[in-house]
Amino acid sequence: MSQAAKPDAGLWRPVVAPTRLAFVGARNELSQQSLRRFVSRYGNLPITEAEVVVCLGGDGFMLETLHAVLLSQTPVYGINCGSVGFLMNPLIEDDLPQHLMRTQAAVLHPLRMHAVTQAGLVEEALALNDVFLFRQTRQAAKIQVMVDGRIRLPELVCDGILVSTPAGSTAYNLSAHGPIVPLSADLLPLTPISAFRPRRWRGALLPSSADVEFKILEGDKRPVAAVADFTEVRDVVSVAVSEDRSIGTTVLFDPDQSLSERIIVEQFTV
Fold first, then answer.
1. pLDDT in tens, 25-34
2. From the CB of residue 23, how many other CB atoms can be counted at a distance below 10 Å?
3. CA distance 241 to 68
4. Three-class secondary structure of residue 59 per DSSP
């Protein structure tokens, strides 16, 4: 099974239908309307007291919610009330506790970014989707790529580069023409963003246990920023990325719509 996300990992097997629910909603009108209906019908507990957090919105708000519960490991069930819903389920209101009892679980483990800036500051952040670097000015970035302590690319001239989780491989990674990775593959995509030299390099698939390090070349002339989901660090000189298996969060999906199945379906979408 994938080191980065394991479907049906055994953390979500309720004996009875969960009734202690917390609801959170994005700021768009549909999410807020749905939030009021759900709260009126099922009540609303603080996240710290809930068996399940029900997230109303799109994938962006779902990602925010997953970060909010990352340390508590409370399962999150997403209901699509936004524009993008890869991680979400269709809107249902009737018999929600019974419906939740039949869901399937995927446990996601984040990437940990360790970034050092030109000023010598050290910043750390977690990413459930990806960690990416990008140029801050009109000039292309020059980045050295190391994997497990060995230099694999002495110099990549590009707009940027990213490391993705399997769950995040359908997001920015896919837009940058990186491969979609099934959850069972034990792989992390390493994908360049608009590579200029070496022009034909299309990236690599790394084992999920890999330690990746980027060193910025000519950083004073060609400054680079690093982003881990919602955290951006400017003017970095080095960025280390690895999977953090000590932390996980559980996402719930409707029967026959597991995250593994969705990733497979995405590969046949034209």
1. 999 999 999 9
2. 24
3. 21
4. helix
User: Strand 236-243 vs strand 111-117: parallel, antiparallel, or unpaired?
Assistant: antiparallel
For the chain, what is the total number of helices (H) and then of strands (E)? 5, 18
What residues act catalytically?
59
3-state secondary structure the chain: CCCCEEECCCCCCCCCCCCCEEEEECCCHHHHHHHHHHHHHHCCCCHHHCCEEEEEECHHHHHHHHHHCCCCCCCEEEEECCCCCCCCECCCCCCHHHHHHCCEEEEECCEEEEEEECCCCEEEEEECCEEEEEECCCCCEEEEEEECCEEEEEEEEECEEEEECCHHHHCHHHHCCCCCCCHHHCEEEEEEECCCECCCCCCEEEECCCCEEEEEECCCCCCEEEEECCEEECCEEEEEEEECCCCCEEEEECCCCCHHHHHHHHCCCC
Which amino acid is it at 29?
A: E
CA quadruple 115, 121, 124, 127: dihedral positive or negative?
A: negative
Please report where in the chains the tokens 């996402």 appear, as a residue. 251
The proportion of the chain whose per-residue pLDDT surpasses 70, expressed as a percent, equals 95
Q: What angle do CA 149, 237, 188 make, to 5 degrees?
A: 45
Q: What pLDDT score was predicted for residue 267?
A: 80
CA 49, CA 162: separation in Å to the nearest integer? 36
Q: Domains (ranges, CATH) in the chain?
A: 5-109+247-266 (3.40.50.10330), 111-243 (2.60.200.30)
This prediction has a pTM of 0.87
**Segment 104-145, tens digit of pLDDT:** 998 889 999 999 999 999 999 999 999 999 999 999 999 999
What letter represents residue 114's amino acid?
H
Residues facing 146 on adjacent strands:
151, 213
